[in-house]
Specification:
This protein has 235 residues and is an alpha/beta fold. The chain has one domain: Alanine racemase (TIM Barrel). Helices cover 42% and strands 16% of the residues. The protein is built from 9 helices and 8 strands. It has an 8-stranded parallel beta sheet with strand order 7-6-5-4-3-2-1-8. Strand 4, helix 5 and strand 5 form a beta-alpha-beta unit. The longest helix has 23 residues. 36% of the residues are buried. Bound molecules: pyridoxal-5'-phosphate.
């Protein structure tokens, strides 16, 4: 009997090559450059062995949704130079751990959490890089701040020197057609452009997942968050 040997490493490298092709194609289509797109490998629920395989394939940015799941991986990777992105729902009692372990937070949507992250960011670390998550579809159960409240939050955040605001993030409803996918991404891009009249340093847009990265890139994404199409389906 032959034993099935899983080779995480080649598997990831193949999938990474495909994603890079998709990024390159979307960039050509929109006159952008691939080097302006940061690929975040979303490793939530994935075991350490898969992170190592991804790392060996050259991946350096990883995204996690659940603190308990992420913490041991981050500790284990401390000498590897990985940038860790928190992309999950932020509970107030988890802000200290998030501010301590992560380099980036993508899901900030209220001032109270911003204040806690600011106050709890360890002094020996550089400011925490953050995105504000915007709820474009205004679904009641969805995370993110309403567009109408956005500029107030940005203004208040000017008082928080331990946070370095990068730009906006969204998770639109999943749809299959490119023309439908791109609408909310363009809405986020326009919101960002309006903010830039007063805050010209807000240059980053975190948007696009496995199913809609092309539409996100055409609409100006700078950070795409890919799980399924890099690691396979989650358990
Ligand atoms: C899980 C997750 C992703 C990755 O989604 P895929 O469809 O698996 O690529 C991206 N962003 C956030 C916020 C997520 O929770």
């Amino acid at each position: 009997m032959t034993e099935l040997i899983q080779n995480h490493s080649n598997d990831f490298a193949d999938k990474l090559a495909l994603i890079n092709q998709r990024i390159a194609r979307a960039c050509r289509k929109s006159g952008r450059e691939s080097r302006h797109i940061t690929l975040i490998a979303v490793s939530k629920t994935q075991p350490w062995s898969k992170i190592v395989a991804a790392y060996q394939a050259g991946q350096r940015h990883f995204g996690e949704n659940y603190l308990q799941d992420a913490q041991p991986k981050i500790v284990q990777s401390s000498s590897m130079g990985i940038e860790w992105h928190f992309i999950g729902k932020i509970q107030a009692n988890k802000t200290r751990a998030i501010a301590t372990h992560f380099n980036w937070v993508h899901t900030l949507d209220r001032i109270k959490i911003a204040q806690r992250l600011n106050d709890q960011r360890p002094v020996h670390l550089p400011p925490l890089r953050v995105f504000i998550q915007v709820n474009l579809s205004r679904e009641a159960n969805k995370a993110g701040i309403d567009l109408i409240e956005l500029s107030d939050l940005v203004t208040q955040m000017q008082q928080l020197p331990r946070l370095q605001l990068q730009g906006l993030m969204c998770i639109p409803m999943a749809t299959r057609k490119f023309d439908t996918q791109i609408k909310p991404f363009q809405q986020l891009q326009q919101a960002q452009e309006r903010l830039q009249t007063n805050y010209s340093h807000l240059q980053q847009l975190s948007m696009g997942m496995s199913a809609d990265l092309e539409a996100a890139i055409v609409a100006g994404a700078t950070h795409i968050r890919i799980g399924t199409d890099l690691f396979g389906a989650r358990n």
